[in-house]
Design brief:
Layout lengths: L10 H4 L9 H7 L4 E6 L3 H4 L11 H9 L12 E6 L3 H7 L7 H27 L3 E6 L5 H12 L3 E6 L16 H7 L3 E9 L6 H9 L4 E5 H6 L5 H12 L4 E6 L18 H14 L2 E7 L13 H21 L9
Parallel strand pairs: 1-2, 1-3, 3-8, 4-5, 4-7, 5-6, 7-8
Length: 340
């Protein structure tokens, strides 16, 4: 994937990876890398939530864009371990034959998501046990559940999570899909405090909103409309408020690309955050929180009307590097690059 150029050093020329699939844990544990890149190229959970497929196509272009960024004083590739992607091809083949209009097929799809959960949580748990920070490119937002589970089980405590998303993904426990990753994580005791930044008011059910108000000590949101339509608060104030809600403990960081205006995704929006605001979110979460992981979900480059365009992959690469730089600046306060 590397496009080498004389007199330049790309991130991919400095990144580490395991020499064999059977020995990756030892290689990761022995490395000085802080971040581990993991892909989950699937859209089973999206389809099981009646959504549009395509989220399986984000990992490869995102990885390629990331590897071809420059390695320099702002971000050195030696801090990154490229693990690869979770094996999902067999599950994807089974899902391809199923139709959500048939109740038995829908049930089978949701069973496949549960099988995927086990694979993802196992990988995440092993990464966290090595003391590293997973940076995960999905895939559907169903993968939030096994990522949270893997972190929680390894740390032996419920974890906090912040999510930039038009949807709470706190739907009923009706079988696993992309719309209930956080409600399942809360139900099983893996999720403690949960903040949703930029919630779209008319795209969340009355019952979900009621659940948030009923459990306001652990569930919190700020709506997109409060920030950008009514202007009751500013972007930065709202973001800091959400970060403050989950700041008391180690925290997972989530972003659904549905939140960004006109990004190809399973539920593309015409009214969302700008790419710059999404990048600010990624950086501020990295610099202000004790981040456990970063998960970028629901990107679907295959749904772009410009088929040869890689803007989605490039945007994901920006988000990954912004988050990493935030984490670095958090632990290097006073450095010339931290702004302190």
């Amino acid at each position: 994937m590397l496009r080498r150029r004389e007199h330049e050093t790309k991130l991919g020329e400095r990144c580490f990876c395991a020499q064999s699939a059977s020995n990756w844990e030892n290689a990761l544990r022995d490395s000085a890398c802080r971040f581990v890149l993991v892909g989950i190229p699937e859209d089973i959970g999206v389809k099981a939530n009646y959504g549009r497929g395509g989220a399986h196509t984000a990992w490869k272009p995102a990885l390629e864009s990331f590897l071809n960024q420059q390695s320099n004083l702002f971000l050195d590739g030696s801090s990154v371990f490229i693990l690869g992607h979770v094996q999902v091809s067999d599950l994807m083949e089974q899902a391809a034959t199923l139709n959500t209009r048939h109740s038995a097929d829908l049930e089978a799809l949701r069973a496949l998501v549960s099988a995927l959960d086990e694979r993802v949580s196992s990988v995440i748990s092993r990464i966290v046990a090595c003391g590293k920070i997973p940076v995960v490119v999905g895939g559907g937002h169903n993968n939030a559940y096994p990522i949270i589970k893997g972190c929680s089980e390894t740390r032996q405590q419920a974890v906090n999570v912040i999510n930039c998303d038009p949807h709470s993904d706190f739907r009923p426990l009706e079988g696993r899909h992309s719309g209930n990753g956080f409600s399942y994580a809360r139900h099983h005791g893996f999720l403690n405090r949960y903040a949703v930044f930029g919630l779209h008011e008319q795209y969340n059910t009355a019952q979900v909103l009621h659940d948030f108000y009923k459990q306001s000590g652990n569930l919190f949101f700020t709506t997109y409309e409060d920030i950008f339509v009514r202007e009751n608060t500013s972007f930065s104030a709202a973001l800091n408020h959400n970060i403050g809600f989950v700041k008391n403990s180690a925290c997972g960081v989530e972003i659904d690309l549905d939140a960004i205006t006109n990004v190809p995704s399973s539920a593309k929006t015409s009214s969302g955050l700008s790419p710059v605001q999404a990048r600010q979110y990624a950086y501020q979460c990295g610099v202000q929180l004790d981040a456990l992981y970063f998960h970028i979900a629901e990107g679907a480059p295959v749904l772009s009307h410009i088929k040869a365009d890689n803007k989605t992959g490039k945007l994901i690469a920006y988000l990954m590097s912004d988050f990493m730089k935030g984490v670095q600046d958090r632990t290097n306060v006073g450095s010339p690059l931290s702004g302190q």
